[in-house]
Design goal:
This protein is mainly α and 278 residues long. The chain folds into two domains: 14-151, no CATH class; 154-254, no CATH class. It is built from nine helices and four strands, in the order H-H-H-H-H-H-H-E-E-H-E-E-H. The strands form two sheets. The protein has a two-stranded antiparallel sheet. The chain has a two-stranded antiparallel sheet with strand order 3-4. Strand 1 and strand 2 form a beta hairpin. Helix 1 crosses helix 6 (120-151), helix 4 packs antiparallel against helix 6 (120-151) and helix 5 packs across helix 6. It is globular, with a radius of gyration of 22 Å. Pfam families: HNH. Residues 195-253 form the HNH nuclease domain. It comes from Thalassobacillus devorans. This is HNH nuclease domain-containing protein.
Length: 278
């Protein structure tokens, strides 16, 4: 298990740091890819992915990984590697932790504790207290911020849903008739909530993610937006919000049940003359 025993830059970028850690986890750095995670964690999977929920399956994954990351580091007796980043988060989000007691060791590295004569047990007790406070006061906000970073990463979402696809494909209709229309295929949700449509539209910048057509109605009035599954339901996709993208009507109808075409279409702010080889 990767620990947090490293120096932290005090720059308020913990959401980005942790988002990068999620990418590594999805690629197997600690063998906590989606299927293995679901074996460890208690997730009401079918309810969660049968229709869109604001607290997505990815929120659950992030929450589990971040909790496990800090818990593991505490178990390995690296209290400062937990205290320092959590204190930084408390300061950024204006969470009062002063009632936890004096902590003059904040900012030190774990290897410095003995050098400055601090009692390891007392420091570890403080680490457990601030970890508990994080769980009570800050975790939902932090998970939401990490999710915001990852929801903009279409490649991550595709890989997350590809791993989930392997779990869905083995589900049997006879075991889950309320959720499946046939083996390995979820029923299509009848309604996409407005909050999901707005979120996907904003993330995809109002452009079809297959052909790039403008769907904002600024340039054309006749282009109809559609909200398409990245991994089609017929191929083991889900109705989790992480599995939706914006497409035009033409691409949505021509995509086909088994196609997983997607792009992260956007425009560069400016071109560098050396960008493309000659």
């Amino acid at each position: 298990m990767v620990d947090l025993s490293r120096k932290y830059s005090w720059n308020g970028n913990e959401a980005l740091i942790n988002a990068a850690h999620m990418v590594n986890e999805l690629h197997g750095v600690n063998d906590l890819q989606v299927e293995n995670w679901l074996d460890y964690d208690e997730v009401d999977l079918l309810t969660k992915i049968s229709k869109p929920h604001k607290e997505t399956l990815l929120h659950d994954y992030i929450s589990f990984i971040t909790f496990t990351m800090y818990e593991y580091t505490l178990d390995k007796h690296f209290p400062m590697a937990v205290i320092n980043p959590l204190v930084e988060l408390m300061n950024i989000y204006d969470v009062d932790y002063s009632y936890l007691g004096e902590a003059p060791f904040i900012g030190l590295d774990d290897e410095d504790l003995h050098l400055y004569g601090y009692d390891q047990n007392l420091v570890e007790k403080f680490a457990h207290k601030i970890f508990k406070l994080y769980g009570e006061k800050l975790e939902p906000t932090m998970v939401s911020d990490i999710f915001t970073v990852l929801f903009a990463n279409k490649q991550f979402l595709y890989e997350f849903n590809k791993q989930l696809q392997e779990v869905v494909e083995v589900l049997k209709l006879k075991d889950h008739p309320d959720y499946l229309k046939k083996d390995g295929v979820f029923k299509r949700c009848k309604y996409l909530p407005k909050w999901l449509q707005k979120g996907v539209f904003m993330r995809d910048k109002g452009r079809c993610q297959i052909c790039g057509t403008d769907l904002t109605k600024v340039l054309h009035l006749d282009n109809q937006e559609n909200y398409d599954h990245i991994i089609p339901l017929e191929s083991g996709g889900t109705n989790d919000p992480t599995n939706f993208q914006l497409t035009c009507e033409h691409c949505n109808k021509s995509k086909g049940d088994r196609s997983t075409m997607y792009h992260s279409l956007g425009a560069r702010f400016w071109e560098n003359e050396n960008l493309f080889p000659k």
